């Protein structure tokens, strides 16, 4: 008998395992089991090296459905994501995403459908890596800007923590709507829009206030 397993990678306070399970259930998934890697960075740790992921590969059987919030849960960069998805499909596992409800099924035999599936995998894996790189660059730019303006007017204190900012950027990369992000993280739509349009300024504001609190 097949089972539906949710894999959750948790690296921020806002994105708890329980929260990701609730999101999946609200999207219509009936989750039989949950496997999680908590406190694991999606940027620096390959999927195959995560303790939860290792258990997952041992647990999954042909015909099982693996549910993930988004493809970035399955790897740290383009190569890792695509390799992981293909390895799971080769094992007979169907991968489905909570956001946008994408399905990746290795049982597909139609050439056109396979081409569309493989193109979608490549595109989303590339988007995940691009967003991770953009977030790192925004952090660097924000810290540099904060150093330049050190001792000057701090501006309004951000309404979000760094963990919230990372979660918002993560959701934006997955094309979640501004309204939904604001509602999920207790922010105003204007705050989310500012983060979307000027991530480096959001990082700079956090860096300035972090410096102030440490003085």
Fold and architecture overview:
With 215 residues, this protein is α/β, with parallel strands linked by helices. The chain folds into 2 domains: 4-124, Resolvase, N-terminal catalytic domain (Rossmann fold), CATH 3.40.50.1390; 131-214, no CATH class. It is 53% helix and 11% strand. The chain is built from 8 helices and 5 strands, in the order βαβαβαββααααα. It has helices at residues 17-26, 51-59, 78-90, 111-148, 162-173, 178-185, 189-197, 199-214; strands at 4-10, 33-38, 65-68, 94-97, 103-105. Residues 211-215 have low confidence and may be disordered.
Task: Summarize the structure in short.
The protein is α/β, with parallel strands linked by helices. It folds into two domains: 4-124, Resolvase, N-terminal catalytic domain (Rossmann fold, 3-Layer(aba) Sandwich); 131-214, no CATH class.
**CATH H-level superfamily title of the largest domain:** Resolvase, N-terminal catalytic domain
Q: Order the strands across the largest sheet as they lie in space.
A: 2-1-3-4-5
CATH fold-type name of the largest domain: Rossmann fold
| Computed Rg | 19 Å
Helical content class = 40-55%
State the helix count.
8
Count all strands and give the number: 5
Number of domains: 2
Give a short account of the largest sheet. 5 strands, mixed
Low-confidence stretches: 211-215
Coarse morphology: globular
The CATH class name of the largest domain reads Alpha Beta
What's the helix-strand series? EHEHEHEEHHHHH
Could you tell me the mean pLDDT? 80
**What fraction of residues sit in β-strands?**
5-15%
Structural class: alpha/beta
What is the distance, rounded to the nearest whole angstrom, between the alpha carbons of the first and last residues?
Answer: 59 Å
Domain Resolvase/invertase-type recombinase catalytic: 3-150
Family: Belongs to the site-specific recombinase resolvase family.
Protein name: Recombinase family protein
InterPro entries: Recombinase_CS, Resolv_N, Resolvase-like_N_sf, SSR_resolvase
């Amino acid at each position: 008998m097949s089972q539906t397993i949710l894999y959750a990678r948790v690296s921020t306070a806002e994105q708890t395992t329980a929260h990701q399970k609730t999101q999946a259930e609200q999207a219509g998934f009936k989750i039989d089991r949950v496997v999680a890697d908590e406190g694991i960075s999606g940027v620096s740790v390959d999927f195959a090296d995560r303790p939860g992921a290792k258990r997952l590969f041992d647990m999954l059987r042909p015909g099982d459905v693996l549910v993930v919030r988004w493809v970035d849960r399955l790897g740290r960069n383009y190569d890792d994501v695509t390799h992981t998805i293909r390895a799971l499909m080769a094992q007979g596992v169907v991968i489905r995403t909570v956001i946008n409800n994408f399905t990746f099924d290795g049982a597909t035999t139609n050439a056109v459908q396979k081409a569309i599936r493989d193109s979608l995998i490549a595109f989303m894996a590339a988007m995940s890596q691009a967003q991770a790189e953009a977030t790192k660059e925004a952090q660097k730019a924000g810290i540099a800007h904060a150093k330049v303006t050190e001792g000057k007017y701090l501006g309004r204190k951000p309404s979000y923590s760094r963990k919230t900012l990372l979660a918002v950027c993560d959701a934006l990369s997955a094309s979640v709507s501004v309204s939904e992000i604001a509602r999920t993280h207790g922010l105003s739509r204007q705050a989310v829009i500012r983060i979307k349009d000027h991530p480096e300024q959001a990082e700079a504001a956090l860096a300035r206030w972090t410096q102030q609190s440490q003085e």
